[in-house]
Design goal:
- By secondary structure, this protein is mostly helical.
- It has one domain.
- It contains 16 helices and no strands.
- The N and C termini lie far apart (about 45 Å).
Length: about 325
């Protein structure tokens, strides 16, 4: 639906060419703006409604009462069955943070969700076979699990924006909503939507704008040619760095990966690029900035970049002729 609206605005209303860079960028911007804002409103509202029925303190106590390995595994499992791109995962990440779910568990979801989904796995099986697809899923699970542990080691709670931790005010609002009926609970949830969207809407648009610019003006052929002679040691780090500014979901980037493999780019280099594009995008970081501060973003980027490079080297070594 969002894709159809984007097509209508860019190609019918504005009359832009379907093959033009501007047309592609505008279509992407309209489509993703609608999709992400709808998800923001729906997910934040649902999380607010949940908090109006069950206090965040109870949610936190339940999660805290479980072994960390179990909470982390459940978060990764949830991420694996939610076919979100990196930006689309942010609303649920915000909801988790608002519900006081530990950040180590929350980051496990944020890392796993854009990298692993059933559609991408099926496409990978068709292109590379089930063995490589299974190894990719396992690599994604390991990256999400260990990456979230490393993030937790840095104690990222200290870098969460202050408004998220305004516990006394939120507890009073939650208690008032919980003591009322459906109307008061709806009012509480809708107020949460207004507060959070008001804080981050500019950053959301900025992030989507950056993604749209890269989507429309960075040609696929340039990416392929840049990494075509990818037998050098620097090819995997280069693939990760090239992927960060770009923006797509795991499913959308698979055609690029297939084209690169057909041009002789090693599988590890190709999959490192895929992980980087899917799970670590500049638009995502711009949106996350309204929830966590720059030091947390720097650690997040550093941890994932190192992980993707190691995965790339590992696949290249395993599949070397």
């Amino acid at each position: 639906m969002f894709d159809m609206i984007g097509n209508q605005v860019a190609f019918e209303w504005l009359g832009l060419g379907k093959e033009s860079a501007l047309g592609s960028a505008v279509q992407f911007f309209v489509m993703d703006t609608l999709k992400i804002f709808v998800m923001l409103v729906v997910i934040i509202y649902l999380m607010g409604l949940l908090r109006a029925f069950v206090s965040t303190e109870k949610v936190r106590d339940v999660v805290a009462g479980k072994p960390k390995w179990l909470g982390r595994s459940l978060a990764i499992g949830l991420g694996g069955v939610t076919p979100f791109c990196s930006c689309s995962s942010v609303p649920l990440f915000i909801g988790f943070v608002e519900a006081r779910i530990p950040l180590g568990i929350t980051f496990a979801f944020l890392i796993a969700s854009p990298m692993i989904n059933e559609v991408a796995v099926v496409l990978l099986i068709g292109i590379l076979g089930w063995e490589v697809a299974l190894l990719y899923v396992l690599a994604g699970v390991v990256v999400a699990y260990i990456g979230s542990m490393v993030m937790e080691w840095f104690k990222p709670e200290r870098w969460v924006e202050a408004y998220v931790w305004d516990i006394k005010m939120r507890q009073a609002q939650e208690a008032q909503a919980q003591s009322g009926g459906l109307v008061s609970r709806h009012a509480f949830a809708w107020n949460e939507v207004k507060i959070i969207v008001k804080r981050i809407w500019v950053w959301v648009l900025a992030g989507i704008g950056v993604g749209a610019a890269f989507h429309g003006y960075v040609p696929q052929a340039w990416i392929e040619s840049t990494l075509a002679d990818a037998g050098n040691w620097w090819s995997v780090p280069a693939a990760v760095l090239v992927g960060v500014p770009l923006y797509s979901n795991a499913t959308g980037v698979i055609p690029i990966i297939e084209a690169m493999l057909n041009k002789g780019v090693p599988i590890g280099t190709s999959l490192a690029l895929m992980m980087s594009i899917a799970a670590l995008s500049l638009p995502e970081l711009l949106i996350l900035r309204k929830v966590i501060r720059w030091p947390a973003l720097a650690v997040f980027v550093g941890v994932l970049c190192v992980a993707f490079v190691l995965v790339g080297y590992g696949f290249n070594a395993a599949f070397a002729v």
